[in-house]
Structures are given as structure tokens and as C-alpha cells.
Write a structure and sequence with these properties.
Radius of gyration: 19 Å
Number of strands: 12
Distance between the termini: 44 Å
Shape: globular
Strand order of the largest sheet: 3-2-1-4-5-6-10
CATH superfamily of the largest domain: NAD(P)-binding Rossmann-like Domain
Order of helices and strands: EHEEHEHEHEEHEEHEEHEH
Helix content: 25-40%
CATH architecture of the largest domain: 3-Layer(aba) Sandwich
Number of helices: 8
Strand content: 15-25%
CATH topology of the largest domain: Rossmann fold
Structural class: alpha/beta
Amino acid sequence: MKVLVLGGNRFVGKHLVEELLEQGYDVDMFNRSGTGPDYVMETCEGNIIQGDRNESADLDKIDFDSYGCIVDMCLFFESQFDLIEDRINKDTNYIFVSSGAANTNYSEHYGDYGHDKKQVERRLQDSKLNYKIVRPSYIVGEGNHRPRLGHYMNKIINREHIEVAGNGQNKVNIVFVQDVVKQLIRLATTHQVRTYEMVEVVGDNIEIIDLIYKVNEYSREGEVMLVQDDESAILPKNDFVFKTNSEYTKLDDGLKEYAKWFYNEGAKKYGYTI
């Protein structure tokens, strides 16, 4: 089967492309050139179609009918969906990577991001496409270019204050990138025509303060110094929790692997001082 990944050169998309290639699938990626520090062309052998999904002329480079599955990693706005809806074959297995922030319980806390993802979901549900919607919670893991676990580790090692929102007792759901990829692979490779599915990919629920101290267990010698600062905190003060299942990487196991990658490679790659 031939798979198109829209996005695919950073974090989750990069892991997905690598796993699809490892399993022997024919993979193409469509993304802008030079978007971020992780370039798939450095490590993968898939075909790269360079272009901007906001430009109709660039989308014309893609033979949409040639793919059995399309995984859309970078769809954020209805206007972007407008440009691709009529290009996708109605029997193609189309997977939209949305976000837990689109959940009605939380979308108001995530501003335009949660609202826009929810609006795209609604448009997709009203379409004639053979779609799957995937809602990951708070994704962490190897190759994460956003300030998440690495942000905490860096602050602890350098004995800098870690800003928390409110009293830090709000809960967040943590899911590791390998679990998101596992679900995407399952949906991509078990194709059934005209099936519609909403999948929440989640892991452990944990209070922010407990998460920080848990990260500290896997950090090099440092000190946890907390300060309340709603504006600078990387996690909001609202809860972001989901019902978990048994098929996910446990927090301790994931943190252990993440710390190993962070100290060996990640810190230098993403500009942390350790």
C-alpha cells in the first residue's frame, strides 16, 4: 500500500514515516522545505514532495488518487481542508490527526487551537470522505521540538525556577509518541471502506507538580524550584484528563527512555544548556 503523510518531517510525523518504511510501506511525504530541525530526508528513504499545503498550485504536485491511505499531520484550519476535500478519493483511508484540545470539555481552554481543530473535525464529519479522527492528549517523547519534558529537565539541571499555573495541582494526561504512532499505524493499515472512527490516544493522568518531581527522578543532579506564574507556565491551570486504557507506555518507562535520549542527543539538538 502507498501512504501519503501530509507533514511528516517533525516529531510524531517523523516517527510515523520511519515506522511505515520499516514495515515495508511505500511512503511519500508532503511538507515545506526547511521547517524545523528534524529533516526526514536525513534518516528516511521516502519520497518527499516539497510544497505549502496553503497553496493550490503546490497541492497539484500530489497524485491523491494513487494513495490507499493519507495521514494528515498538519491540518489546522477549515481553509486548508477546503483545498484538499475534493482532491481526496472518497474510498481513500483518510486519517486526520486532531488533538485532545478539540474535546468539548477542554476546547475553550485552548483558544483558537482547540476551536479550529474542532471546526475541522465537524467539517470532516459532514464530508463524504472515508475518515478517521485521532485525538492525542499531551504528546511527549524522543524528538519533541516543543518545550515539554525537556523544558523541565533543563530548568531542574540549571537550578532555575519552573513556572506552574495556579497551585500546580491540575492534572494533565501524558501520552508518549510511540503510542500515538502505534494507533496511527493500526488505523492506516487496517483499511475498511466507509468506516468512521474517533480515537482518543491517551496515557497516564498526573498532577503537574507530581509530573515535575517525576521528571526530576530521571534528571541529572539539580533542584526543583517552583514558582507560580500563570503567564509563563508551559501547561495551563485547567485539568486535561482522559479515561485511560491498558495499551499505553507507563509514565516511568517512557520517562526513562526520554531522559536517555535527551542527555545523549536531544538537549544539544534543541538548544538546551545542560
